[in-house]
């Protein structure tokens, strides 16, 4: 995929985070910005391509980011773009 300036690529809708994600005590906004601008994080190339297609066809969008150590977060935007949620993988 070509390099892109960090510009929003879709609507986020209502943005929320689970209590467990909030308890990580990290800057969740920076990860939300990456998701919003199409930096899908630590996904496989197949999953990144699925997100690119979701932008066209209006499907759900998922990003996955590795934090320090074994900690990770998911960010999911619903297909109808009504909401975006930051959560831990075990909450998925």
* Number of DSSP helical runs: 3
**Content-based structural category:** alpha+beta
What amount of the residues lies in strands? 15-25%
Strand order of the largest sheet: 1-4-3-2
General shape: globular
Amino- and carboxy-terminal Cα gap: 27 Å
Oligomer: single chain
Helix proportion range: 25-40%
Q: How many beta-strand segments? A: 4
What is the ordering of alpha helices and beta strands? EHHHEEE
Write down the overall mean pLDDT: 95
Radius of gyration: 12 Å
Q: Which regions are unreliable across 5 or more consecutive residues at pLDDT < 50?
A: none
Number of domains: 1
Main beta sheet, described? Answer: 4 strands, mixed
How would you characterize the overall build of this protein?
It contains three helices and four strands, in the order βαααβββ. The protein has helices spanning 19-22, 28-36, 45-57; strands spanning 14-17, 61-66, 72-77, 83-87. The mean pLDDT is 95. With 92 residues, it is of the alpha+beta class. It has a four-stranded mixed β-sheet with strand order 1-4-3-2. It has one domain. 28% of the residues lie in helices and 23% in strands.
């Amino acid at each position: 995929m070509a390099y892109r300036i960090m510009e929003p690529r879709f609507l986020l809708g209502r943005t929320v985070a689970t209590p467990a994600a909030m308890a990580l005590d990290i800057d969740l906004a920076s990860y939300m910005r990456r998701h919003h601008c199409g930096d899908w994080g630590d996904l496989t190339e197949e999953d990144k391509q699925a997100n690119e297609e979701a932008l066209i066809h209006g499907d759900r969008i998922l990003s996955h980011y590795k934090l320090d150590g074994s900690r990770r977060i998911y960010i999911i935007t619903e297909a109808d773009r009504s909401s975006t949620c930051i959560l831990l993988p075990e909450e998925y």
